[in-house]
Specification:
single chain; 119 residues; mainly beta; 7-stranded mixed beta sheet; 4-stranded antiparallel beta sheet; 11 strands; elongated
Length: 119
Protein backbone atom coordinates (compact mmCIF):
# COMPACT_ATOMS: atom_id res chain seq x y z
CA UNK A 1 0.00 0.00 0.00
CA UNK A 2 1.19 3.50 -0.82
CA UNK A 3 0.53 6.58 1.28
CA UNK A 4 1.00 10.22 0.36
CA UNK A 5 1.28 12.52 3.35
CA UNK A 6 1.17 16.27 2.86
CA UNK A 7 2.40 18.92 5.26
CA UNK A 8 3.12 22.62 5.33
CA UNK A 9 -0.29 24.17 4.91
CA UNK A 10 -1.58 26.93 7.15
CA UNK A 11 -2.62 30.54 7.40
CA UNK A 12 -0.57 33.20 5.65
CA UNK A 13 -1.10 36.85 4.84
CA UNK A 14 -1.40 38.02 1.24
CA UNK A 15 2.06 38.35 -0.24
CA UNK A 16 3.45 35.70 2.06
CA UNK A 17 4.98 32.31 1.36
CA UNK A 18 4.39 28.69 2.24
CA UNK A 19 6.17 25.49 1.34
CA UNK A 20 4.16 22.31 0.98
CA UNK A 21 5.71 18.86 1.17
CA UNK A 22 4.34 15.49 0.18
CA UNK A 23 6.12 12.29 1.10
CA UNK A 24 5.24 8.96 -0.46
CA UNK A 25 5.77 5.77 1.49
CA UNK A 26 5.10 2.10 0.96
CA UNK A 27 6.20 -0.62 -1.41
CA UNK A 28 7.24 1.77 -4.14
CA UNK A 29 9.24 0.61 -7.12
CA UNK A 30 9.40 4.06 -8.64
CA UNK A 31 7.36 7.23 -8.92
CA UNK A 32 6.66 8.78 -12.28
CA UNK A 33 4.84 12.10 -12.39
CA UNK A 34 3.96 13.92 -9.19
CA UNK A 35 1.81 16.96 -8.83
CA UNK A 36 -0.18 19.34 -6.73
CA UNK A 37 -3.86 20.08 -7.21
CA UNK A 38 -6.12 22.43 -5.32
CA UNK A 39 -9.80 22.67 -4.62
CA UNK A 40 -11.59 25.69 -3.26
CA UNK A 41 -15.11 25.40 -1.78
CA UNK A 42 -17.70 24.90 -4.50
CA UNK A 43 -15.09 24.54 -7.22
CA UNK A 44 -13.51 21.64 -9.05
CA UNK A 45 -10.10 20.26 -8.25
CA UNK A 46 -7.56 21.80 -10.60
CA UNK A 47 -3.95 21.11 -11.41
CA UNK A 48 -1.53 23.61 -9.88
CA UNK A 49 1.81 22.15 -10.90
CA UNK A 50 3.32 18.84 -11.97
CA UNK A 51 6.78 17.40 -12.33
CA UNK A 52 8.04 14.31 -14.09
CA UNK A 53 10.63 11.92 -12.73
CA UNK A 54 13.15 13.64 -14.98
CA UNK A 55 12.35 17.07 -13.60
CA UNK A 56 10.20 18.55 -16.37
CA UNK A 57 7.56 20.84 -14.94
CA UNK A 58 4.33 22.51 -15.90
CA UNK A 59 2.21 25.05 -14.08
CA UNK A 60 -1.25 26.50 -14.14
CA UNK A 61 -1.16 29.96 -15.69
CA UNK A 62 -2.45 31.47 -12.46
CA UNK A 63 0.64 30.42 -10.49
CA UNK A 64 3.43 30.79 -13.04
CA UNK A 65 6.25 32.91 -11.68
CA UNK A 66 5.02 32.56 -8.10
CA UNK A 67 5.02 28.81 -7.38
CA UNK A 68 7.83 26.34 -7.86
CA UNK A 69 7.47 22.57 -7.83
CA UNK A 70 10.44 20.34 -7.09
CA UNK A 71 11.10 16.78 -5.99
CA UNK A 72 13.65 14.67 -4.21
CA UNK A 73 13.54 11.26 -5.85
CA UNK A 74 15.70 9.68 -3.16
CA UNK A 75 13.12 10.69 -0.55
CA UNK A 76 10.04 10.10 -2.74
CA UNK A 77 9.00 13.63 -1.86
CA UNK A 78 7.56 16.49 -3.87
CA UNK A 79 7.53 20.11 -2.77
CA UNK A 80 5.57 23.20 -3.71
CA UNK A 81 7.12 26.54 -2.86
CA UNK A 82 4.41 29.18 -2.95
CA UNK A 83 5.40 32.83 -2.98
CA UNK A 84 3.43 36.05 -3.36
CA UNK A 85 0.31 34.27 -2.20
CA UNK A 86 -3.05 35.79 -3.06
CA UNK A 87 -6.46 35.28 -1.43
CA UNK A 88 -7.53 33.36 -4.53
CA UNK A 89 -4.81 30.79 -3.82
CA UNK A 90 -6.70 29.67 -0.72
CA UNK A 91 -7.84 26.07 -1.10
CA UNK A 92 -7.20 22.54 0.02
CA UNK A 93 -4.04 21.40 -1.72
CA UNK A 94 -3.74 17.75 -2.70
CA UNK A 95 -0.66 15.80 -3.65
CA UNK A 96 -0.92 13.34 -6.52
CA UNK A 97 1.50 10.69 -7.72
CA UNK A 98 1.70 8.02 -10.38
CA UNK A 99 3.45 5.16 -8.63
CA UNK A 100 4.89 2.12 -10.29
CA UNK A 101 4.30 -1.11 -8.37
CA UNK A 102 5.78 -4.05 -10.21
CA UNK A 103 4.65 -3.84 -13.83
CA UNK A 104 1.68 -1.59 -13.19
CA UNK A 105 1.22 2.11 -12.52
CA UNK A 106 -1.31 3.40 -10.02
CA UNK A 107 -2.53 6.88 -9.19
CA UNK A 108 -2.62 8.00 -5.55
CA UNK A 109 -3.88 11.07 -3.72
CA UNK A 110 -2.91 12.57 -0.41
CA UNK A 111 -5.45 13.62 2.19
CA UNK A 112 -5.06 17.32 1.47
CA UNK A 113 -3.68 20.27 3.38
CA UNK A 114 -5.49 23.54 3.90
CA UNK A 115 -3.95 26.79 2.69
CA UNK A 116 -5.64 29.97 3.88
CA UNK A 117 -4.56 33.38 2.59
CA UNK A 118 -6.04 36.18 4.61
CA UNK A 119 -5.07 39.33 6.42
Amino acid sequence: QVRLVESGGGLVQPGGSLRLSCAASGSIFSINAMGWYRQAPGKQRDLVAAITSGGSTNYADSVKGRFTISRDNAKNTVYLQMNSLKPEDAAVYYCNAFVRLGNNEYNYWGQGTQVTVSS
